[in-house]
Design brief:
149 residues, mainly alpha, 3 helices
Amino acid sequence: MDHIAAAEERLVNERMRQKLNEVNAAAQSHLAGVQDHINFTLQKAYFKCAYECFDRSKKQDEINNCVEYCSAPVLNAQNFVENEMANFQEKLNRSLKVCQDRYESAKLQPNSNNAMKGLESCVDSSIDDSIKLLPHLARKLKEYLAVTD
């Protein structure tokens, strides 16, 4: 690989990192209300409920069962959010893999001067599409968790 191609590839890789940072920032922004709900509303309810479980008249098994019961809403919420975020990440990864496959194929073509530009365009489009999904994902999570803004 010549120096110009290597420099171009480094530049594109840096741009892709910036675009991925955009996705992370957008996800944090859109999902802040969900995280607040889990971290404060549900966790607070859990600790209040669990506190009530500790009664000297109860047996250890009863206390354990009570605390486990109290933790269920938080655990369910966290699991749901983790699963949805894993699905989101998987879709993004598949989309970026398609871009990478197209780039690898384009490099094999006799006139592969635009392969890097094609990769960059594909990555931009994939990431922009993912960012557009975030408000819908946030709404789905808020509906499931009954978050009121």
